[in-house]
Amino acid sequence: MDKLIINGQRKLYGDVYISGAKNAALPILIASLLSKEALKLKNVPNLFDINTTEKLLFSMGVEILKTDSLLTLKARNIKDFHAPYDLVKTMRASILVLGPLLSRFGHARVARPGGCAIGSRPVDIHIKGFEAMGAKIKNESGDIVASTEHLPNNRLIGAEISMSQVTVTGTENLMMAACLANGVTILKNCAKEPEVIDLGNCLVKMGAIIKGLGTAIITIEGVDELNGAEHSIIFDRIEAGTYMVAAAMTAGEINCIGVESDKMTSVISKLKEAGVDVIKTDNIVSIKSNGKLKSVNLETAPYPGFPTDMQAQFMALNTVAEGVSKIKETIFENRFMHVQELIRMGADIVINQNLAVSRGGKVLEGASVMATDLRASASLVLAALSAKGTTVIDRIYHLDRGYENLEKKFNQIGAHIERVS
Ligand code: UD1
User: What's the CA gap between 348 and 345, in Å, rounded?
Assistant: First the structure.
């Protein structure tokens, strides 16, 4: 298993090119199932989760052609309608095949995702939505088995669906299902994340009729079929935010290239509150830090609130910033796994249920630590970059799920990170 060895306390300086967003690319690759024509995608990041998605789609019969700059997916002949447990357990987003398969072919079978490191993560809202559109859903040997065979023309029926909680993949799954349903679907309490909008924009290019993207109510008028399209994936705001925090913690000066700053307002405003200079120009966000940081209080929330996927990185920042701070996690119940590892590096953090209170102003020290999930791993990298001495991070396969060329990109701006097997 690979490890990262990080020598800390180096100032980061230079340009970082931000990759395409993992959380937009995953549903968009899966949206290829909705059409028999080719979906051509640009700016797809090279990540473990993307490889898993390609493997899943290929196993179903999707033809995949890859060049350096273009990924072409063609779901002309689908022969297998099953997402097996060994793929679903490595990537929960596999649940997203349910909507497209059900709406185009009338049946699908997806292993039910179990809990994961950050919480129980149920999929009840997805399932209730499909049922509201007329699907019959049953459990069989740990799989969710869905069918529309009893419905007229084997098609889902448009419905009004009010989601009990804001869910990103839930909104995406139901939006994809509604594209080929019979009639109009009104989704209420939708996720407004830029990645949901990017998926919606791609679906519209494929011929879907969707209104209200980026608002709480999305209306989809079902059509008989979708066509091929070409689409470029939006930038990864979480990757960008991670590099910004790294620069802040190392008294660095970096330019994040390919960033639409209006999609990162909550993160940028917290960086400013921490005492970091943030300059926004066309497509570039420049970060300049003198290393004198003030810790910040924050509470995670659905977009446009502060993203849960940036919580762990700000936890690392707060350990070195001056002052006492509170971080409240409202999205996932068990998303403080990084805290114990940060404490091993010298952080002073006390957890009380979903609240973490941190006494900052520490100089972290290198240690051997273990990554537990994707963003927890990122927070350990940030802590290591600012720490005195050497940190060894074990189980970094989590990082490869979501950060493209992490050590290469960091080393290009002055970090010293080595990967060893
Ligand atoms: C997505 C992101 C993930 C991010 C999360 C929250 C992808 C591939 N992943 O995950 O990086 O951390 O949004 O921004 O886009 N819930 C239910 N029932 C459901 C669905 C969700 O109770 O059927 C709950 C979850 O347990 C959680 C909350 O709703 O407490 C939000 O989860 P959700 O937005 O669905 O997260 P994901 O889409 O899995």
Answer: 9
**Whether residue 159 has pLDDT greater than 80:** yes
Name the CATH architecture for the domain at 3-14+291-420: Alpha-beta prism (3.65)
Å from CA of 228 to ligand 1 middle: 28
The pTM for the full model equals 0.97
* Residue 41 in tokens: 């995608």
- Which CATH number is associated with domain 22-232? 3.65.10.10
Q: Separation of 93 CA from ligand 1 center, angstroms? A: 10
CA of 231 to the centre of ligand 1 (A): 24
User: Using one digit for the tens of pLDDT, what is the confidence trace for 42-75?
Assistant: 999 999 999 999 999 999 999 999 998 999 999 9
Residue intervals in the chain for CATH 3.65.10.10? 3-14+291-420, 22-232
Each residue's pLDDT tens digit, 237-293:
999 999 999 999 999 999 999 999 999 999 999 999 999 999 999 899 999 999 999
Q: Does residue 190 have an active-site annotation?
A: no
Longest dimension (CA), the chain: 67
* Token pair 């924009």: residue: 201
What strand order describes the sheet that includes 13-17?
13-17, 253-257, 284-288, 277-281
Dihedral sign, Cα of residue 89, residue 95, residue 96, residue 97: positive
Atom of ligand 1 nearest to the CA of 374: 11
Whether the predicted pLDDT of 115 surpasses 80:
no
Binding pocket residue ranges, ligand 1, CB within 6 Å: 23, 26, 92-93, 119, 121-126, 165, 167-170, 195, 308-309, 331-332
* Band of residue 113 on the pLDDT scale cut at 50, 70, 90: confident
Q: Which of 116, 190, 202, 256 is catalytic?
A: 116
